Amino acid sequence: MNTASVPEVRTDKGFLPRQTKLLLGAFVILGAIGFIVFNSLNGNQQYFMTLSEMKAKGDIASRETVRVGGNLAPNTTKIDTKNVTAQFTLIDDQNNVLPVYYKGILPDTFEKSTQVIAEGKVDKNGTFQASLVLAKCPSKYDPSQIDWHSSTDPGNLNYSTGQ
Amino acid sequence: MSTIGTVSIFLALVVAVYTTLAAVIGARRRIPELTASARNGILAYTALMTIAIGVIVVALYTHDFSIALVANSTSRELQTIYTVTALWSNQAGSLLFWSWILSLYSAIVVLRKWERDRDLMPYVIATLMAIQTFFAFMLSFITSPFAHWWSVNGQTVMALFPPAGAVAFIPADGQGLNPLLQHPAMALHPPMLYLGYVGFTIPFAFAMAALFTGRLGPAWLRTTRRWTIAPWLFLSIGLMLGGRWAYDVLGWGGYWGWDPVENAAFMPWLAGTAFLHSVMVQERKGMLKVWNIGLIIITFSLVLFGTFLTRSGVITSVHSFTESDIGVWFLSFIAGVTLAATLLLFTRLKQLRSERDIDSLLSRETLFLLNNLLFVGAAFAVLWGTIYPLFSEVVLGTKLTVGPPYFNQVAAPIFGTILLVMAIIPLVGWGGATGAKLVRKLVLPAAISVVLGAVVFALGVRDLVPLTAYFLALLVIVSTVSELIQGTLARAKNTHEFFTTALRGLIERNRRRYGGYLIHIGVAMMAIGIVGSQVYATDSTRALKAGESMNVRGYTLTYENLSPNFPSGEGEITSATVGVFQNGKRIATLSPSRGFYPSSGETATTPAILSTPQEDLYVIIAGWEDNFATVTFRAYVNPLVFWLWFGGFFMIVSTLIAAWPDAREEARVRVEGLAKEAVRA
Amino acid sequence: MELLFAALIVIGIIAFIAYPLFTVAPDEIDEEPNALDGLAAQRDSAYDSIRDLDFDFQLGKLSPSDHAALRDKYTSRAATALQQIDALGGNGADAHIEEEVARLRAVKHAAPSADDALEREVARLRAHKGAPAGLRCANCGTPYRVGETFCAKCGNKLTT
Fold first, then answer.
1. Distance from the C150 Cα atom to the nearest Cα atom in chain B, whole angstroms
2. Which sign does the torsion angle of CA B665, B669, B675, B676 carry?
């Protein structure tokens, strides 16, 4: 009867014990994931600034894509539905002004919104060319209850190789 | 009427505190009267929460605008179903809903498991009620669903008790519900999500109880498994409904934006999936015990964190409905729970020793372990991207954000590897697989997948990443289906059953494994849908006069008719009739529309979708000019997105198959219970 | 009026919670971890592993030597668990056991896919009544040793 000693199915092969190999493998995987995260972060992060911060940072917005948030100046929104473009102006309480030009469909509640976030770059003429627009819409009674609506227009929907 | 509600909530807080203490003291000091009282306490909490919910629902239904919640979220013209479901569209209501759902789950657990898991139950109750204490506290003092609007010194203030000199302010009509939320999927999506989220509290409570009592054996495992698959299923349904809603209602042609609120629900799903898989290893081989407790702690922490993210608007988000001061409380609570649970885990590490070592590096166990790492890694990557703005602002001094490009870039390799593991797992057994045997079993599925991949290549997919993704997804399907077929044939050989009977028998004999395989097939289909629609979607935008046409990807769309400002519900809808032609033949008529709702000042763009398994044609009205002389249309073509929805549906049905109670096993458990009685007597 | 309702609710809830404090509670809480629980799980886990092993072998995932070695390992694990269960077992609640056996048979008929594991269970329960420790043939109840494939008495195939 063979109850006393149970034969091991596999003996450790190689010079490392199994447990160590497993731990090593785990570290490799976690390391790989960490590397991917770090890499993607560096390649894709953007400044998220107010108008005054953007001004303070000089010409950062003309060099890289940034996200900027400000208040929508009333009566400055012009929508061209034929060409599907829009223009509006962002202001803040420190009298900074930023004209924005957006190629796409604005979010549904844009004209009623007070705060807007735009993602893009500033062009040579000082106009902010936006590729993404997020609009904040205040509620009638309680300013602390807010709905966000986004155009979430990814713009370029076509994939290209060589990330 | 709100007095009853307020009293119920305050009493619920008292009951929660009492029950937590009674359960713990009763268990430790072995005072059965106290534990029995605690059991009644948790049921009493359920009753009180139900009363509170009832009061709110009645208030909503009767348009009682004296209650701020009702005034803020509904209006007189709102359809009844959306009036009632507005309960969870605001902060206080959603916290109340959270607590109520947890109390329902708790009552069911207590009523069903009191006899069976007598040793664990007091600690389960204590954990659940400690969590409920937090929610009851928030609902009593920080954000009460029964707060009123008061008018004082020319300002309006929302509070539970009137400030000095205030007069009640009762608006004539409410603000109405965001029209984007007036969609059937939106009526169902939050309850499903909550049933999912909140449901994970139960396995968490059982884990804590198991740690407290040291009973980490099979009883805990069996209970945990049942009480994890249900919330996981609901969460999956909730996520799918959310995606479908975004697709149908938000009008941008997509279904997932890596929005913080979306991520808030996705992260617990990822950790929960890891947990679900990992407990299978503990069941079979008594291993990964520490991992499992760790995973459920992570899952529950992510649940709380997700609730916090959604409710506090701390990060800019597309649909964060509210923004207030519950943030600090929530963060402290999350930190406290996670810390306490982890500490408890550490003190019990000795009792969590593996019963067995891993036999071989190429085995089901190692693949499950790899699976754990990948899913947790994915959850971490998503978490990191989501909180990066906060982190960078606090730690680095500048606010930085990442958008979909970051998430897509991290998700692709991780989920691609997960697909690969899904493809191999049916071919590897517990205890070990011979490397040569695995390769031999892999050859046929791989060959078929390569052939299918070549077809995909011929159809125009030339980029490496999508091609690889398609190949892996196809490999999963082929490998899993081949395993199902071979298994059925082998069983039929043993039992001489007809093929379909043998297949059914095969699944019933090991639901977790074969039901799981069916789920994997569903997931692979979803992967195909996601890759197709994310990578190869195209769109076209044109301004058209009546009678003019535009082209997109082989479709010709002709703007035929417009019916402007048609009254509907509380607003007006403008819809267009668009004829769809392919190869000169008319194949469909679509009616995209745009609605305007004066009470909330909102516009909503509703797409018209022509869906085939091959692709979706998705048309919206972008706007109009010159008093409707020209209307601008945008048309998307989303390839293969059908497979995302169908795969999701397939996955959900398969989950039901996998989770269905097993008559055999029920009998076995009952017999064991009796044998235990016999021994004790 | 509202206050009356509220007061009633408060009183009702407090009464409901306080009630068990004043009634004698007969049930005790089991203090020690139940050894039977763990042993039963070990036995079932071993059975499941063997069943899966056989199936995997049939499907060509294991080599013959690996299959034999693993099978031996799990068979002896099952045997050890069974022996320890029997050692702990008492002669009580005969009527209960008969009742459960009948119910098991009913389940088996209702779900034709229920298999020999149930049969094993039934036989074990019967064998429990005052039998010495050891493995028994599912058909006739004759004890046998680990490793034997067919019952010496009735020739039934022995499944472990």
1. 18
2. positive
> Between A1, A7, A9, which is nearest C146 by CB?
A1
Q: What is the pLDDT of residues A118-143, one digit of tens each?
A: 889 998 888 999 988 877 655 433 33
Contact B129, B20 (CB under 8 A): yes
**Which has the closest alpha carbon to A120: A68, A158, A78?**
A68
**Confidence band (pLDDT; 50, 70, 90) for C89?**
low
Residues B107-136: pLDDT tens digits? 999 998 777 777 889 999 999 999 999 999
Beta-carbon contacts of residue B321 (< 8 Å; ≥ 6 apart): A145, A146, A147, B89, B90, B91, B313
Sheet arrangement for strand B538-545? B538-545, B630-639, B615-625, B608-611
Give chain B's mean pLDDT. 87
Could you tell me which chain C residue has the CA closest to the CA of B26?
Answer: C29
pLDDT greater than 70 at residue B314: no
Nearest CA in chain C to B221: C41
Q: Between A and B, how many residue pairs show a Cβ–Cβ distance under 8 A?
A: 189
Instruction: From chain C, pick out residues whose CB is under 8 angstroms from the CB of A9.
Output: 66, 69-70, 73
Kindly report the nearest CA distance between residue C70 and chain A, in angstroms: 7
Q: Give the side-chain half-sphere CA count within 13 A for A117.
A: 20
Q: How far is CA B10 from CA A36, B14, B56, B144, B402, in A?
A: 49, 7, 15, 10, 42
Mean pLDDT to the nearest integer, B236-252: 88
Non-local (6+) Cβ contacts of B511 within 8 A are B657, B658, B659, B660, B662
Largest Cα separation within chain A, whole Å, is 93
Instruction: Please give the model's pTM, rounded to 2 decimal places.
Output: 0.85
Please tell me if residue B191 touches chain A, with a CB cutoff of 8 Å: no
Whether B602 and B178 have beta carbons less than 8 Å apart is answered as: yes
- Smallest Cα–Cα separation from B421: which of B486, B357, B365, B485? B365
A28 in contact with B at a CB cutoff of 8 Å? no
Q: Angle at Cα C4 formed by Cα C1 and Cα C8, nearest 5°?
A: 145
The CA R_g of chain C, rounded to the nearest whole Å, is 24
Distance from the first to the final alpha carbon of chain B: 54
A118 membership: H or E segment, kind and range: strand A115-122
ipTM of model: 0.81
Look at B359 and A9 and tell me if their CB atoms are within 8 Å: yes
Q: Would you state the pLDDT for residue B108?
A: 94
For residue B641 the two structure tokens come to 């997105």
CA B250 – CA A140 distance, rounded (Å)? 22
From the CA of A9, how many Å to the nearest CA of chain C?
6
Q: Which residues of B touch A148 (CB under 8 A)?
A: 316-320
Cα separation, B291 vs B273, whole angstroms = 13
Give, in degrees to the nearest 5, the angle at Cα A105 between B564 and A57.
150
Minimal-distance CA residue of chain C relative to A6 = C73
CB contact under 8 A, B360 and A10: yes
| Residues present in chain A in total | 163
Please give the torsion angle defined by the CA atoms of residues B384, B389, B392 and B395, in that order, rounded to the nearest 10 degrees.
-90
Q: Report how far residue B411's alpha carbon sits from residue B522's, in angstroms, rounded to the nearest whole number.
A: 19
B436 to each of A15, B359, B442, B450, C58, how far by Cα in Å? Answer: 22, 17, 10, 20, 16
Residues of A in contact with C73 (CB under 8 A): 6-7, 9
Helix (H, G, I), strand (E, B) or coil at A160: coil
* CA dist., res. B121 & res. B34, Å (int): 13
E strands, chain C, are 135-136, 143-144
Which candidate from B158, B406, B630 shows the least CB-CB separation from A40?
B406
